[in-house]
């Protein structure tokens, strides 16, 4: 066809022009429609239509032209009129969502207004008459003009009075009460077929004029036959038939499943709609959340892996009925898109179906997980009743940072490198090399003082985030680094699986501190490095601190030593100084024992990875000349012509200086000065006066020197003299102990504190008066301290008439004056010396007390105590000498027999030690072999102390046994069972404890009554015996043995002595079937027939016991004589129980009790069982079987011969099975949407029964699809709704849902929802209306209910049955 087709807005206009030529422009219809149903009709202008009022009739206008501008008009010609009325449309707002345009109709006459608001124009060039009535009947004309030519088309529309019925079709379903459902036509009811559910379906004709009459039909599931209702369908009732009608189906079983049809009919037509009752449940996948603890977990949980592992993700659908289909998908991003996963490569998918085709489990295994498989995995379960998509499981890996190492050259590197601030600008890069999902980064700085600062972009900092090689990178740039940016920089890379921290140091080199020029050191002082340290004034310890003033991090410190400023360096001598070199803190060197060897030059070195620094220290003292014979400072007598050497040596001070000599005239003496010789050495010089000259070389000589700490000068006077004789001191013997307080030097002096001692020292040979010098050597010391100027001593030196010198030392004795005294006589010819000791004998403190030490404990105790020590305890004995001077020795001895001698100490676990005036004896892990008495004596040259004895011991221990003795003889601790004619003999022996217990303190006792016992002769005198003949005990008693020593009572073992209780003789197991009377000993088993009687005998084996009685119980309840029970005592030791005509009520456990004054005895039980037999039809196997019935309950199959032997009759037994009929014809063979069905019945012995009778095998299908695949049925796309789920609860708040999809009418494949009209989309979630809850239970295990409720967020009705299936759990949580 040439030209083009135009779709335009048309207007009714009056007829064509005179003289115009009629052309075929309009595409016309030529059909006639005579319809009775109310529906939508669409056809081309030219067709005619006749139908009921309320219909919507649409006429399509389209034409074809080849040239010219067309004009279009519409006309309406009412019935009986010849005047066409022009219809003018006024266009309203455009709406392209398939909603018609709205027009106001304006006509020149009032007759045309009868169709106001019902004629409309809609997209697609269509004119519609909506909800038409008789006033809209008439001729509709469409005129097209092109120039002088025209074409026209006519459609005759006739609306007939009245309307055909139309039923309300609604997908909403409500629940009224427990297991009660109601809803309109169109709904699908998901029910259980246990006979407890009721469904009410409401049918309403909302349009029929008059309202239609409603009848009901039913097509059973799997069949195609319609039957009228209520008819023969059990439980079906119909109420109402005009306009509104309800069908109620009660006691629903499988026979009620199928399609329920309502048909509304009046004279204008009919309408038909259906509702369905079916059985089924949508799927629901159980999920986990959080981090999975193993490589096998439920979907929804996340798992961190390293790579190479095997992962198992489980999707468990426990609800779907029928079983769902579960598919898996994967995405690198949580927001998608997701791609389907199938088995193959690294993926394995395994599925299994639950029992009765309910639920499905699917297992996704990822073998050898690789980084490209990291991502998000989810599962989707689908069946015809719904779809459930799980939350995602994330598979990933914890971040790992790429770390640098060492100091970088320049200012750019990785986290982990070290950066020198001298670079100016520093760039640190953090790179997560394998974490998934991508990491986020956080930077912070820790200053050298420990302050933590979070780093963000700003100031000198700039943080940039980028991607390199697909991995996230964070870069920190520090511009113009100052001291404020020094420190440790950390970056934390984190994702959901964890975090990792990297660290870099930004620092600068070390700088050593600088102290003062000269420091006068005081004792215990601390000083900065870099100074001259003067230690002259009583200094024995001080510390130099070498601080790093600017290094970041603080450098490590070390010290070296040199005796001279330019000498080689060595390690610090640890005899004089302790060095420490901590990292990050000042280094210290601590000096002690400050003698000449400690003086010198000490260098502190500070270093870190960025640089080092050094500062030097001089440790010295002011110079001091040595004193003594031959030294400068002494006065000398010299004969003319003799020579004299005077030595000037430094006894202290550093560094040493040059020694300068001056003679009597004050002039400096040099090596070239006549008459003198000078010898120089380091720290010493000797001046020799050669051949002294009268009047010239006699006088004062001076030696002087200096160092940085000061100057020193000392003089000697040289005078002219005659010949002299060296002194000799008149000394006594040290063996002479002087106790009177006065004596000669050389003797020993014993004196107590407070007494006065006078020691005489006389020179008996010296020519030239002697000088005396006294000194004291304190105890435990070696140096003799000069006491010449000590105010505690009085020294007197005089010349006797012979011209000889006598010296006397007098002092009061005290703790500070004991010791050794030395007297030295000196003149120019020589010296002599002698010594005396002043002291007193030792005295050890004796502290008596009583002490106990528990097992495993240790304690220190002064000697003289009495110590009770549990075995494995330890004790340290301390002996303190408070008087002994000088010194003492401690002598320890031991004995373990109070009457024996003291002997040397045993060697095992005993250690001696002495600390000053305290001697210790350590006894470890004491056992009984070390119990005894320990004695100590302290001795010195003046005598010995009084002995002090310490007792170490413990309470006595009585040996005991355990067991049962029946012959009347044994050791204490055994229990004795004594026949009345046997004797009792109990032995108790003491095996431990010190001091030994007194035999008179040993006792056997019965309660509080002391029993008579006998001590055995040696060597068994530590054992005692209690003996009793014809021991008479009513029932039982307890006998206890005990003794004691100073540390307390012994253990108290006891023996229980008892008279044996009665003994009941037991029977053997018997089972006699069918006997009219059965007798047995108690303990036998009895198997009886109904109405049998039996006797049980209870017999006591006699012993000489007091009187006793019998008692009987049945199932633990006492039995009394009378009724069914008869109890007789046939002899003194026998009781018989008879039970007559028993039934099931008398089956159970019978027990005999014997009660006496010594207790009671219960026998073994006799179990009585009642047996019967019966033929029963076993439907599971389809045949009769003989059953044995025990006590009316438990049934067991036995050979049929047993029942036959008993003459039992066989009952009838039916065998049931499914009977399948032929398939019906296909309901629609023109397309793919047809159905065919067949009858499937349950027959038992030829009779039709309820389906439940055949439920041991699955019922064959009753319906299936048929037709032509690929053939279009109606529209190309349509909404497809699935069956509604069951209400989520049978009471309370409840919802039900279904799946709704847009599908192709040709292939039935799911397409986008946009292809279907959203106006007609069926509901997929509706609320149920039910009664309040009263009783409810959980239909799943507690564990699954907890998971369901956790996934749903609470006991809400959605998703899927939470509040119904887990009703009891929900009620507990909401209570």
Automatic annotation (TrEMBL):
PROSITE patterns xref list: IG_LIKE, TSP1
Entry keyword annotation includes Signal: yes
CDD domains: Ig (cd00096)
Record GO biological process: homophilic cell adhesion via plasma membrane adhesion molecules; synapse organization
Keyword terms: Disulfide bond, Signal
Origin: domain of life: Eukaryota
InterPro entries membership: Cell_Adh-Cytoskel_Orgn, Ig-like_dom, Ig-like_dom_sf, Ig-like_fold, Ig_I-set, Ig_sub, Ig_sub2, TSP1_rpt
Claim: Zinc-finger is one of the keywords in the record: no
Residues making up the signal peptide according to the UniProt record: 1-18
Descriptive protein name: ADAMTS-like protein 1
Organism of provenance: Oopsacas minuta
